[in-house]
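Re: duplicated header lines in exported structure tokens

Our pipeline writes sequence and tokens for each protein into one text file. With two proteins the header for the second block appears twice in some exports. Here is an export where it did not happen, for reference. First protein block:
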Amino acid sequence: MCGIIGYIGAREAQPVLLNGLKRLEYRGYDSAGMVTLSSNNKYLSVRKSPGKIKTLEVILRKKPLSGHIGIGHCLTPDTLVLLANGQILPISKINDGDEVFAFNLSSRRLEPAKVKVSTHKSPGYLYHIRTSFSSLKCTGQHRMFVLSGGKILEKKAENIKRKDELIIPKYIKVEERKIHFRPIFVKRYFKATQEASGLIKNRLKALQLTKVACASLANISRSYMDHVFRNDRNFREDELQKLLPALSIEFDQNYFIPQNTIHGNFIKLPNESSPEFMQIVGYLLGDGTVKERCIRFKDLDRALLGFYQELIEKVFNIQGRVVPIKGTKAWLLEVNSLYLCRWLKENIMSRREEFLSELGQLPEDEIAAFLRGIFDAEGCVGLKNKQIVFGITNGAMARIIQLLLLRKGILTGLYKKERSVDKWNDYYILYISRRSYLEKFLQEIGFSSKQKLERLNTLLKIRRNSPSKYKELQTLNIIPQTILEIKKVKAEEELLFDLEVEHPSSSFIANGLVSHNSRWATHGAPTQANAHPHEDCHGEIAVVHNGIIENHEILKAQLIKEGHKFRSQTDTEVIVHLIEKFYKKIPLEDAVASALKLLVGSFAIGVISAREPNKLVGARSGSPLIVGVGKNENFLASDAPAILELTKDVIFLDEDEMVVLSKDSFKISNFEGKTIFKKPVRINWDITQAQKNGFKHFMLKEINEQPAILENILNLRIDKKSGQVIFKEQNVPEEKLKTIKDIFIIACGTAYHAGLVGKYALESLCAIPTHIDVSSEFRYRDLLIGPETLVVAISQSGETADTLAGAREARKRGASVISICNVLGSTLTRESDGIIYTYAGPEIGVASTKAYTAQLVALYLFAFYLAQIRGALPGFKISKYLGELRKIPKQMSQILEEQNDIAKVSRKYSHLGSFLYLGRNINYPSALEGALKLKEISYIPAEGYAAGEMKHGPIALIDEYRAVVCIATSSKVYEKMISNIQEIRSRKGKIIVIASEGDKEIKALVQEVIYVPSQDEIFSPLLVALPLQLLAYHIAVKRGCDVDQPRNLAKSVTVE
């Protein structure tokens, strides 16, 4: 759950909570729920559900909640799970009561444990975690066991870092059993011995049966009985099996001798698996085909085909033939048998998925034989890359083979090679590279191909041992796996699957990796049990929570010993049971404070209790929480949009603060109980700013809001009487600003690009050396800053972790910090010496648009403010600049009037595979921002460059398959940009130019020109931003991308 809301007052709570949850949807979530205190204040009523808020809304229509106080808050179907019997099944095929292998964290052994299975709707995006061994797609809330700092910890997917390592079990032992096969009808013939013929005649006499009566009894023909009496022919097996039981004679092959006939050899079809048979099956699945009447294998190795020819004859008693394939160096092994083909189709080919899932149950020697066969077919030994490599187009089979190799103690890498040719399947490649695993492969599996065996022995001579990273873990049953990639991906699956594992570790093996329960429930519907809110043992206290409790396993174990009963495996439920533990003869808020002191992690919580119906308690540490103050009603929320329709007066809780709300009062304190006095602040946003208002996407709405926002900022910041720039909330003294010797700007992403423009403006207008750093790098350098340095920290949300850390480091070193921020009361603004609010209103689209231009205007105004107080520019020149700046909103509106034309250009080039953005001087940052916008929302590779650097690499990328966006507005570097455009044109590059109105020269050079109004060069980034944003938007829409919530991105990055 990524957003919470609470209400206490005279209204019905349900509509308040439901509307608030809807306005928090943009934060992302995978379940929703709410709890209210009944109208008679006697009991709590809960409604919750996995999936979207729409699902919860349906439940509420059927079973509405009443009351005036309330609070409101895995794995994809193809994930392979290792069962305790050795089977390897997709999670979607597992049934309630099946036993999986759970990983005992104490003994490091695998133990059988029963499961319950449930499904729920997939969220909009999932996390894709990839190691060299395997990969997994899951929700952000799904937990994995990771090795971090030498310790095994449990982490949610959304909190896993690249430095963490996933773990896989080293030894997998199962109770072995053979696979049994279904028989099919085969016309097999036997010759009866003289003893058999005499036995039949004697039995007829003993039973006093005539030949005619016997034929009728056995349901065979009279003529057949005549042949039996004469014993003058071979007899079909199915007819004998009718006759002999009628005469009470056992079918004994000492009496009846198998015969080869013109219909074919006497075929042997096995009843159960064997090493020889499994090797043939491995070779068949790797490189064979089964036709109606024949089986074929192709190979360049004539000797290998000869080996399998002999093996097939030994197992099935059928002779094949090996012949050359005309016009090639390849050979063909052909085995003709109608019945063998039918039998293979019945037992293997028609049930391939089921058959593959059963391989893990086989005895070790049969698994080894199967692997030998499939590696004979599709494996190769690479001396150059020093690996055994195996490739196949069936991804599920590749992962099963991986797990079978793990059963043999052999670790492999796996990667998918996507085919560029339409209708070709992707290719899955396994590789074994470590010497110890190569040796194990040779000992346990090997090759039947002499050529491959010789190459493997050669490889072992040249392959050196690699040192183990964790020597102390070599004796334990785990293998650490380095994480290669963690990314958010758009969910393609409608349903996800959850397992409830009845084991203390709540774990199972998913795609070979040790995974925690997707969900857990001790009774009721598992997915429902894990949705918020959570209640205590007696249903008297309810909690919603945003964040993660890192020590919840330890706390849970202690609470279970004390008799608390858990209904879920979420970390949140620990909080409500801790409150219950302390909630004896003390007020609810004191019990909450006692509980919070034991928690390690981050949280924002809301708590209500049936015992004190007139209280709503909230607290925060690490996760944002605000208080909404109304008339005879009060609110809690994660973010302002949830309550803007009901109140605009809010209080921002600081770290480790708690609030107790009643309908007409609020009291704020720290966790020690010390009262803190705070006054509400007024939010001037309108609720319509957090809605789409008829636009298709929030991003398009926010692009179109920019003229009005900039107009508002300029009216607020430029004094109408004096014409001077004013910053009321900027608390760094003017005397201090007059003495600063240099400026450092720190920011991330789009804010960093705004900062680059700010660097040009500050140096040009104020003559102050200005540096800029990406926030994530700033604090890790040996910083040369001190009391005479001003640090400007830029963040839309004011919660960006790296920027916060950079600002804190700067203040430690004595520098003054001014923050440029959009969110009133955010952490960054509270920890800065001075603040410049951008007043852009709530920005819902993940890709920043209006916040960017608002940051640019704030930086320009700050540059004029500094120039003003330091005397760097004469007053008349500042006034002239400000006059030009005031024209920008109207000029932006002119650009937006032509946005349909920009959309046409965008759609025309939306099919291209990559884009290059070029700009010079103050529009070099514009090129970076244009490229970032495109790759953020359309996923097209795009790079921004200073145009002067084109000859130093980027020019190699230019051809007719790539677009180049050139920013060539009127400037002192205009002629140089024209030269760049001519170079691109000569190399057939697809060019889109953003130019100033009236530029006819540019139209003669390129076909696609987007004109912006003429403006002083220093302000051109403000105008250039709009066509760049619209290009990215319309290209992404044309390609069917989710522009408001692009994959792998979050609006506010609150972790490193």
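Second protein block, exported in the same file:
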Amino acid sequence: MRKPLFKTLLCLSLLVPFTGNGQDKNALEAGFMNPAEKVQTSVYWYWISGNISEEGVKKDLYSMKEAGINRAFIGNIGLEGIHTPYKTVPFYSEEWWKILHAALKTATELGIEIGIFNSPGWSQSGGPWVKPEQAMRYLASVKAEVSGGKQVEVVLAKPDKDFQDVRVIAFPSVEKKATRLSAANAKVTSAMSLQNLNSLIDGDKETAVLFTEKSEKPVAIDFRTDQPFTLRSLQIFPARQPIQTNARLLVKENGGYRMLSEFKIDRFNANLNVGFDPYAPVVISVPETTASEFRLELANTASGMGLGEVEFLSLPAVERYPEKTLAKMFQTPLPYWHEYQWPVQPEVGDPSLVIDPGKVLDISAFLQGDRLIWKAPAGEWTILRTGMLPTGVTNSPADPEATGLEIDKMSRKHVEAHFEAFMGEIYRRIPAEDRACWKVVVQDSYETGGQNFTDDFLSEFQARYGYDPLPFLPAYEGYVVGSEDRSDRFLWDLRRLIADKVAYDYVGGLREVCHKYGLTTWLENYGHWGFPGEFLQYGGQSDEIGGEFWSFGDLGNIENRAASSCGHIYGKQKISAESFTSGGTPFSCYPAMMKQRGDRFFTEGINNTLLHVYISQPSEEREPGMNAWFSSEFNRLNTWYPQMDLFTSYLKRVNYMLQQGLNIADVAYFIGEDAPKMTGIVDPELLKGYQFDYINAEVIERDLFVKDGLLTLPHGTQYRILVLPKLETMRPELLAKIKKLIEDGAVVLGPAPKRSPSGESFPTADRQVEKLAGELWSGLDGRSVKAVKRGKGELLFGMTMEEALKYIGCVPDCGLPADAPVLYGHRSAGDADIYFISNQKDEMIEIRPEFRIRSRQPELWDATTGRIRTLPAYEETAAGTVVPLKLYPYESAFVVFRRPATKAEGTGLQLNYPVLQTLVRLDAPWKVSFEEKRRGPASQTFARLEDISKNENPDIRYYSGTIWYETEFKLKKKPEGELYLNLNDVGVMAKVKINGQYAGGVWTAPYRVNVTDLVRKGKNKVEIEVVTTWMNRLIGDSGLPESERKTWTPCNSWKPTDMLQKSGLVGPVCIECVN
């Protein structure tokens, strides 16, 4: 192993990417302190179930302008169960058009940019204008068995009026040679008391065995045959009830049981957006096994679960073919990296049980209406009339008059027709001068499931892969064509082509038609329910992309890295996120509660905040007004909204800084080529102090090159190391490109692929992969030899990331202890290196991060205040610069290196954070005033500050709104140095005036305002305006008879027994001084 010193220095010197001319230091400062209008703060603007008005949308927009929101995305959302006293406005009615016109005209006047969801509902692209032949479709079939050697006539009736013929095919029957367990040759028993067990093998999927009680122990069901039976596949058809259980298939041999397969029976979500065949069979392939007794063992059964049919077949089947054809997809919102990967299937020893692709005939010409008249060759034949049917998925959630089928995601023609029916109609109906604000067409998160066919799909498939897909169409129904391996390769190609077309024909097609109209696209580049694409490629075809996160919980944990990685590898400067969604407790959330999650995803690369959600308020007579179960209430009727600018100023500063230059990440994790794909995998795990992106095959093959030993993309993003996933497959074209990258100087870590996953150029492609892998990995066993030099680069195998990074001399970019509750992000912009540091813990911490920067002066840039100061204490090391930092609970800060270093004054924390001395404690009585319109009491005098939710007076205890606190203090002498007003504790936000002049506001720790220039010798007046949430008032009103409640909101779960929220100015308040 070579000594790493040279590599370390090389790493340090090269990690400033080429960005053209250096960033102007004064411009960077000015942009941070006072972010320009071009720094967007966006909001989803939901028009809920027709509860809108012309006056309401205008007031919404004016309030956005005041709060610093300068971009709004209009979503026409329909929610079931929303009951309001307002007159609703039907979608597409003349009144709706009038309101939309007023909104666009007002936004144009105010300079607020508008985006419009490209269909009603947030997912995804559909409406009542979509015809069945334009919709998302899947390949269905009608089957018949005939004897040949004569002319046959058979009726193949369409299964549905919307059935569109594709091909009629025939192939020598394999089913006639197969046997199955049935009531005639087998008996079904169980130690558990289950009724009608023989119905599991009666050939009728509608006769079900239902479990009537929960069982903690596995339930064993035994299938005994009169004669030995050779099993090759098992198909389990659930009763049409949700079922989720672990299962084992066992065979009885020599008096004991041997496991053949362990699998899940997972049909617990019947919604069409996770599969157009909700209760598709669970299909398992096993090696040929001959026996007289088999056992199906089910764990964790529950009452109501059941099985419709259990088919033990001597005929092989394509394992999990419903999943492999997207008929049934991952059923929860977060499909991880491995979800659409399956093990290699056992091959079939008897070729007569496998369809020979050379004997599949296209007999479409012989179909006349529903009647097939065909002179069939001798033998037994299976006939499939194949055709397309709509998946049935509709745009949602939308009002009934706004709901229709989802548009075909694999057809540019149909996507354009959908655009013209909605977006195009807006363009034509509203005058250009009034819709000048409309710039963006929005595609929210994908939640509409898969499709597996479209117009001209067969010809496109053949053009893409170079072989005819028609002989492999029986694989859609689980038949094995050619071999288990060939069938899986065909279905791999099918899924990959679907993903490619969803990216280029749907996302790219919509972008193309938008550009014709002078519009751009904005897309969340992932999907929660039935996503059929590849997340990086999917986002790569949109003008803008976005992630998503909730203020609490796990949603966002993979979505935002998906968005930021896509932005970084495709060269997108702005990476949005639908931010701060919140559910369950209406009007309880406020900016300080949102900060931890927001800052976390800033460190992952999000840099263009999109607030979720501003729900349009049709009137002001009812407060808090319109809401939804999923909202953080960013709207003008929320009590803390008047101080929203404090939060948006912070967001703008952070976004501004994180949009500068290029993201710095050391590692690119390749996600693999298979699809669907919602996220990548970090394996081997990356140590703290480094950043990474996911990267896909398209970008590697097309764009990636080596510059000065670094993997480089055309827009300048660079990586030190490319990590390959632990997969056995890779197409030869990609492997050849990786070989060239290594030879040109790249460092690659990972195992050797063994074969191609595709049927393209089979079997030549496999031999090419084997040859290339042999040339690269020869002599590299991952144990005794873990690194080899190939050309100018190196290939590593069998190393942890710690070992690999140490080997190439790449020290941490932001060195931190492994247990430090700190996250970071890094941008490089010309001469400036910008680090964003976030304390993710609800307590103050002291840290000494080591930044991979040398000979430059550290500065602290505070995004909550816009203030910048030099950090005089730091220590240079061989690898970088150690800077002592102190962060308050959930505090974040920028550490910026942009100037040559001056001599450090020391290394102690107090040099960077001088101790604050309490000068005056404001213990004098406080005059406290409340809003009369929100049922506040008359002005009060508080002898001491308190959390008003603990006040004995219910008018104060349950109060929600603005509270004004006033007091005075005296200074005999104004001291030298900085003076601060420290509020210490506030529920929930506050703005401060000193002697009648605005000093600033607080919304997160430290609750402190610089008042140096406003305080004077002698008497000083302090005014503090505090805003609360609506939560306490809603709890208080919940104890009143409904007729006496003054508050109204449609989604309100609060009860009188719920705990009240801290509210008001809690303090203690004091004047602090630092020299």
